[in-house]
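Appendix C reproduces, verbatim, an entry submitted by the partner laboratory led by Prof. M.T., so that reviewers can inspect both the input and the predicted structure.
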Amino acid sequence: MEKGWPVVSGHRQYDSALRLNGMYKLRGAGVMKSSCVLGESIATQDSMHASLRKRSCSPCLHLRGGSTDAHASMDEANRQLLKQTFSNWKDLMKSLMSSENEVRKDAEKKYDEIKAEMPDATCTALIQEITQGDNEESKTMAAVLARSSLSEVWDKLSSTTKEDIQSKLLDSLKAESSPNFLRKVANVVGAISFTANDGNWPQLLPTLYEMCKHDDSTRKELGFYILSLVLGHVGNELMKFDEDLQPLFENALQDHSAGVQVSGLKAISSFLSSCSSNKQMKPAQVLLSKMLAAIGSALQGDEHNARAGLDVLIEIAQINPRFFKPQLKEISSAMLQHVTMNRNLEPATRRLALEFLIELAEKAPAMIKSSENLVRDIVAVSLALMVEGLDTGVDLERWNR
């Protein structure tokens, strides 16, 4: 047997190469021909008919989202066909990345046909390209396609295909060395976790916990990034805040990497978005001081991440403005005096701090009014920013006449 093309075995397990490249539905004694995709000729298909008719006892192997039972070994002819199909799949991927519009459009049409006719085989091919591709360009294209395609056809996939995809993606999160591509894999994982919101991915959270505790800052940051994609729809179903999440969040907010801190802030925001009541939200308020400290640290020399942190605060204010109530006075003072009125900071950073306070005023006006002089201070600072850039040589009194 040729290395790299494993034998099909029973007990609901079938060869990953066949799932990747098999463009035929094998049923009993014959072959039902699928749509002629990837350039397979009629002669090749007829040859397969003849070969498989000799094996009248061949078990069922169905690649169209149904049963995936398989009990027979692939013979040499099958393996050669799979190799040819895999080669044609590579050609299709290259065409999808072509700079020529006609070539790319034709490839997109062919890909859509394959995806509609054989979702299991198509999705398995994408995952194999992501995990075993020989160059980052094709792997990136596969990740982009997988992010949308898996969500689109997930309900049509067999349970075995789903489990295989989930397992290989988690393995890729652990093994991938390229930070840029690791984020793309993370996006695919996030898309599947949202689509498959049925609790049938028990290995996901343990893997994310492991990443969030990793010594490598890049992998740790990606762990919290994926957690932020997942918590919005499973936050209160699978995890308890004080036991599972609080230690992770505190660790992220105190990390030496600003990227990890921002990803931690995003994960906190995602968790809060899953809270349906103040009772669920209240335990997370112990993190407020550490959240502000993380943004304050970024303001010392990393305004890009500081702005990302301020964006997170605005997101939280839009959904759960009362989250900030315990420390509203300290937060508003810091935003007005140390950010908005700080001329050493970039204008975009200063505006975001003011936008955060205005968002709070719009979403929770009673809370803002209860804080002494806060409305007056917000208005005064807003007016000060409006006239800050005016030409001091202009005679305003004469201009107002």
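The first strand starts at residue 25 and ends at 27. Additional entries are available on request from the coordinating office.
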